[in-house]
Write a structure and sequence with these properties.
The structure holds two protein chains of two kinds. By secondary structure, chain A is an alpha/beta fold. Chain A is built from six helices and seven strands. Chain A folds into two domains: about 1-30; about 40-155, Rhodanese-like domain (Oxidized Rhodanese, domain 1, 3-Layer(aba) Sandwich). In chain A, strands 1-6-5-2-4 form a five-stranded parallel beta sheet. In chain A, strands 3-7 form a two-stranded antiparallel ribbon. The longest helix of chain A has 30 residues, at about 1-30. Chain B has helices at about 5-30, 30-40, 45-65, 75-95, 115-135. Chain B is globular. The chains are: A alpha/beta, B mainly alpha. The interface of A and B includes residues 72, 121 and 124 of A.
Chain lengths: ~160, ~140
């Protein structure tokens, strides 16, 4: 009896799950043009504290030798990152900022990035760095996923 | 009305209010929730991030609505318990990996970082969902 009751509970839960799945997918198809697709070409609104740049501009900055700052977790950075990028997990800002300031003067030209289009940690880090007086900050909004997809240089962390 | 029944109704009402509003806000601000899911660095493929960020808000809304129907309460509270535990795991893992970001709990309306407060809130919601699950017929 108890077993049947629990089976009915599970069955109903599956029905709710299926309904959510069906409506969610239909919704995704309806709004997919509004989602920050990884193929997006144009940058979103510009912030006065930092510029947002697309993949082509990020590659240009890479070739020009700008500093790339990886705002993802240290673990993700160790797995792989944009070649030459330094790790600066946004959540460890207070612990790491003094070392960063010692090594990089306020006029350092840098590109901050995180996991992919729409991720918020690069914006968080850029905002905090701008507050500390860094003036040449650009956020690569396509992030790691777009860089990898383009086949641009990457390396593993040590 | 018995004290236990009253506590159950209060819990159901609270869960309904929290999950219905969280789901609706996420549906109305899809970009913010997409960004939050992406920032967790748990799912890395943009297509799956889009799928998850589209399904979860509706799951929250439907679970909240079905909580109000007594014969569906046990099933919806079970689902809420499962998704809240998944949220808790995601927030805890982001917190431990030093990812400081908007938890995405309330889409783009209420911004809350993945700190101790969101961990405590999710523990509280898990306990509430488990209570409703156990007390429902």
């Amino acid at each position: 009896m108890q077993k049947t009751k629990f089976s009915i509970t599970l069955f109903k839960a599956l029905l709710i799950l299926s309904l959510s799945f069906a409506v969610g997918i239909a919704y995704l198809m309806a709004i997919s043009d509004n989602l920050p697709s990884y193929q997006r070409e144009t940058p979103p609104q510009q912030n006065p504290k930092y510029k947002e740049i697309d993949l082509a501009k990020a590659k240009e900055r890479f070739d020009q030798g700008w500093l790339f700052v990886d705002a993802r977790s240290q673990l993700s950075w160790k797995e792989a990152h944009i070649k030459g990028a330094i790790s600066f997990p946004a959540g460890e800002f207070l612990q790491r900022i003094s070392d960063f300031e010692k090594n990089y003067p306020k006029d350092t030209k840098m590109v901050v990035y995180c996991a992919g289009v729409g991720c918020s940690t690069s914006y968080f880090l850029a905002e905090r760095l701008a507050e500390r007086g860094y003036k040449n900050i650009e956020v690569f909004f396509g992030g790691w996923s777009q860089w990898v997809q383009a086949g641009y240089p990457t390396e593993k962390g040590q | 009305m018995k004290k236990g029944k009253l506590l159950l109704y209060i819990s159901v009402f609270l869960l309904f209010l929290i999950y219905f509003s969280a789901g609706v806000i996420k549906i109305l601000t899809p970009r913010q929730f997409y960004g939050a899911v992406m920032s967790y660095e748990i799912i890395k493929d943009p297509f799956f991030v889009a799928m998850i960020s589209s399904i979860v808000p509706f799951l929250e809304v439907f679970c909240a609505v079905f909580l109000l129907i007594p014969s569906w309460r046990k099933s919806s509270s079970l689902l809420l318990l499962i998704i809240t535990l998944i949220f808790l795991f995601a927030i805890l893992s982001a917190y431990l990996r030093g990812i400081n970001m908007d938890c995405g709990c309330f889409g783009g309306v209420l911004v809350g970082e993945t700190g101790l407060s969101s961990i405590i809130r999710n523990i509280f919601l898990s306990i509430l969902s488990a209570f409703v699950f156990l007390k429902s017929d």
